[in-house]
Each structure stands twice: as C-alpha cells, then as structure tokens.
Amino acid sequence: MLKTWDIFCKVVDNFGDIGVCWRLAKQLQREHGLQVRLWVDDLGIAQHLIPTLALASATQYHEDICIQNWYEHADFSQAADVVIEGFACGLPSSYLSAMVKHQSKWLNLEYLSAESWVDDFHGKPSPQANGLVRYFYFPGFTEKSGGLIRESNMTAQLQSNPDTPFLQQQEPSLNKNSRRIAATQSSALYLPSCVRFPALAGVTENEAFQSALKISLFCYPNAPISDLFNALQSNTHAVIVYVPKSAILPNVTKYFGKEVVEAGEKLTKNNLTVEVLPFLSQADYDALLRMCDLNFVRGEDSWVRAIWAAKPFVWQPYWQEENTHLKKLQAFLDVFYCDAEVQVTDTIQQFQQAWAKEYINAGLLNAYLAQFSPIQQTTLHASQRLVNQVDLASKLVIFCKKI
C-alpha cells in the first residue's frame, strides 16, 4: 500500500531545502493520508518554520508528521515504504541496509528547473550495487516533469485573485488566519499592521495604504538592494516594501544609515517606506505574497509560492559560476511567459535579467511599472495555466505506485 514515507533533508542555504521538504511532508499527510517521517539534520533552523519544535527531542510529532532528528547515532533500523532523498543529500549507510531488507522505493527529489533537459531525465532509474533502484525525480513546469508543489486550495485562491493594477486595487481578501496583515491597529502577531502614513489633508490612512505600491522583498544579499531602494524612493508613487527577517537586513540597515534594525521598524526616505517584518511562518509568508502587488523572491520555495500568489514577481536564482543561473532564469522566463505579448515579455525579461545581474535603475523600474497592468494579467494567466497541471505530491504518489 506504500503507506509509510520518509523524507530526508539536510539544511542547506538556510531555509530553502527544509521549506520545500516541510511543505511536501504536510501535503502528503493531509491530502494523501500517508504516514510521513521527516528526517532533519538541523532542528535549530527547522524551528523557524516549525516554532513548536523541541530541539532536544529526537522524535516528535507536529501536525501529524513525525519529525526525526537526523544525527550520526540515530536509529536507522526501520525503513519506510517510500524514501525521498531531498536534493541528493545522501542517506546513512545503516538506513540503506534497512531499505534493502524492506525493499523500499527510493527517489531523489531534485532541484526545480525549467530547462528543457529536465523532461528527458525525469523519472530515470539508477540501479545500485545493493540491489535498490534510485529514481531521479525532477520537479518542473511541464506535464512531462514531476510538477510543482501546490496544495489543493491553491486553485480557488488563484481563481479569486484580482488582476487589476495596484492603483485600482481594493483591500485584498486574506484568509482568516492572515487578515491581520491589513489591520490598522498595531499587532504583536507574526504580521504587523500596515504602514502608518503621516496625516494628509483629505486622505485617510487606509486610502494611503491602498494607493501605495506594496512590495515584498526576499532575496540574496548580492542583489542590488540599494539600487532598488534608490529607484523606489524617487518614484512618483508611495511605495511600501515589506522585508521579512533574513540575511539582507544588513543591506537595509546600511542603506538607511543605521547600525541595526529590528522587526517592526519602519524606515522612510522620500516616497519609500521599508517595514521590517519578523521571520514569517509559511502560511503568513504566503499571505504576504498574495497581499503585495510585486514580490521579489529567491531560490525555490518562495519562487513557487510567488507563482501561486499570481502577482507580478521577480525571481533571483542562486548565483552559479559561468552564469549558469542566468541560463536557468532565461529558461524559466521562456516557459512561464510563453503566451505573453512581445512588448510585455521584453519588459519582464529586461527587469528580471537586470536584477539577476545585480543592477537596477529608475529607467528599468519605470519601464516595468508602466507595463504593470498587462504584466499583472500575464502573470495571473500563466499561474492559472500551471494550476491545471497535476501537482508534485500527487504525481509522486502516482509515480511510486507504478515503479
């Protein structure tokens, strides 16, 4: 019946790998009724995503998922029916021996890419000397690939998303657990209140909030953050940039000439207001993406969530030698925006490539914002096109039944 599933995750690049593995574990348990055990080698990092995690506990349950501390002397004697090796993290030799006895099905979950070769390599077997077969499972953007992580409720959220430009947006409809994002009173919860503007004659605080361009910023420290802030602060529209706590906070503090910034602080320069947020849960981060008009994302987990938020977004791939990351970015742009008009596509590509090449200026920003309405509609339609494909967790279950 393939009821027991083990997912092995080594925490690399802080939260990217554990973010993907934790989302996958939750979906396999909730939507497919599977018994999931998640092996994690760094509970301290995982605790940011799972706040109730006990660091001293070797085995514990959270949201009906067994979280197992992956350390050298852990008990690896019981193998699962299906074993997912997260991003070629390597499995303990004693656990591999248990897999041989149990005849476990073994899949290596690869990193997400839109490159054309993914379809050819997805699902390929690699027979091992111990008699097991290791399958390479590639997430992707086509029917021939392994699909994208997408919970079942994403379809309804996509269908209800507004596709009007930010200057005409009404107050976004947030789920009941995240409605506090748009509250006007201060809050001690994960997401703070909206930015408070100085009193303006005839303009209420909520009207000022609604008319502002709202941006979420989650990127690598090598991104041209100062250049972006310079372009935004000189823009003709009020801009709110939400920065969840991450490795880019030193860049933010330096730009505003401060020694340190804390969650909840609001920093202002001309038309730019930057609000520093605490580290967000996955649910709250997803809500932030849906609330904002433009999302800057990085890596894999936030990239996919930006797609399901169906708002204009700018993706920063992880830097690689020989500009391999730029090739990955171009492959994605070609696939995701394949149905866009030429003028819209050119604007998107110029802005996205510039961000990945670590430069931005007011001209690029203004050109992007001038096309914001068609970019928003194009992004929404592209996300809706992908939501018609089978999701990654469902494809995994189907794949394992066939091998």
Task: Give an overview of the whole structure.
There is one protein chain. The two termini are about 15 Å apart. Helix 5 packs antiparallel against helix 14 and helix 12 packs antiparallel against helix 13. This protein has an 8-stranded mixed β-sheet, covered by helices on one side. By secondary structure, it is of the alpha/beta class. About 10% of the residues have low confidence. The protein contains 15 helices and 14 strands. The protein folds into 2 domains: about 160 residues, 3-Layer(aba) Sandwich (Rossmann fold), CATH 3.40.50; about 230 residues, Glycogen Phosphorylase B (Rossmann fold, 3-Layer(aba) Sandwich), CATH 3.40.50. Helices cover about 40% and strands about 15% of the residues.
Beta-strand content bin: 15-25%
Question: SSE string, helix = H, strand = E?
Answer: EHEHEEEHEHEEHHEHEHEEHEHEHHHHH
Multimeric organization = single chain
Class derived from helix and strand content: alpha/beta
Mean pLDDT: 88
Overall outline: globular
Q: In the CATH classification, which architecture of the largest domain applies?
A: 3-Layer(aba) Sandwich
Low-confidence spans: pLDDT under 50, at least 5 residues? Answer: 169-203
What is the level 1 CATH name of the largest domain?
Alpha Beta
End-to-end separation in angstroms reads 13 Å
CA radius of gyration is 22 Å
Reported by name, the CATH topology of the largest domain is: Rossmann fold
Order of strands in the sheet with most strands: 3-4-2-1-5-6-8-7
Tell me the helix content: 25-40%
* CATH homologous superfamily annotation of the largest domain: Glycogen Phosphorylase B
Number of domains: 2
Count of discrete alpha- or pi-helical segments spanning 4 or more residues: 15
Largest sheet: 8 strands, mixed
Total strands: 14
